[in-house]
Amino acid sequence: MESHGMRVGALAWSSSLLSSGSRDKSILHHDIRAQEDYVSKLTGHKSEVCGLKWSYDNRQLASGGNDNRLFVWNPHSIQPVLKYTEHTAAVKAIAWSPHLHGLLASGGGTADRCIRFWNTTTNTHLSCMDTGSQVCNLVWSKNVNELVSTHGYSQNQIIVWRYPTMSKLATLTGHTYRVLYLAISPDGQTIVTGAGDETLRFWNVFPSPKSQSSDSLSCIGATSFVRSYIR
C-alpha cells in the first residue's frame, strides 16, 4: 500500500479496514478488499498522527497527534466529530474500554504525563490522573475493569490501575529505557512490553475471565529476552 508522503507511525484495524496515521498529518483508510491504495482520507491534525485506535464496536476511531490533540471520528466522517485539546503534549496512548460504550482513555507525553478519560457519547471530560511520567501506551483488560499504562521519562515503569478509582494495583519495574510497546494476549491475562533497552518482558497481570479476581497480581512475574541486532 502506498499513498502517505511521510513515515507511518500508527495503525489500527477495523474488520477489513486498515487505518494509518502519518507524519504527513493525515489518516488514510485502506480497504484490503479494494484495489485502490486508500478509500478515504481524514484531515484535521496539525502535526504527526502518532496514535490510532478503533472502538470495540468499530463505530468510532480515536486519533492522537504531536499537536497535543485527541480527535474522534465516525466511519463516514472526513473531519473529526469530537475534538479534545486538554493534553499539553503528544497523544500517543489511546485505549477504548471494552466494558462501557464510549469510554475512552488517552495519555500525554513528557510535558503532560496525564491519563485522561472521556465519555464520547456525551462529549464529556470525565477525569484526569497525573502519572508522573510520559505515558507511552494504554491497554484495557477485557477480563476486569482495569487498565495498564507504560511510561517513559522519568521512571520507565508499567502501572496497573483499577478503574474508575484509579488506585494503583501494581507498579512493575525492570525496563531501563522508555516502554515503547505494549500488547495483551488473546486470553487477556498476559501483557508483553518492549522498551528502548532492547528487551521484551512478559507479565502475568490479569486474572482469567472465570476467576474475575485481582489476587493474581500477587504473583506477577517477568521474563526478559535480549534481542540481537540484525543490522
From TrEMBL:
Gene Ontology MF, one: anaphase-promoting complex binding
Repeat region (WD), residues: 42-74, 172-205
A Gene Ontology term for the protein's cellular component: anaphase-promoting complex
InterPro entries with a match to the protein in the record: Cdc20/Fizzy (IPR033010), WD40/YVTN_repeat-like_dom_sf (IPR015943), WD40_CDC20-Fz (IPR056150), WD40_repeat_CS (IPR019775), WD40_repeat_dom_sf (IPR036322), WD40_rpt (IPR001680)
Pfam families reported for this sequence: WD40_CDC20-Fz (PF24807)
Span of domain CDC20/Fizzy WD40: 1-203
Protein name as annotated: WD-repeat protein, putative
Source species of the chain: Arundo donax (Giant reed)
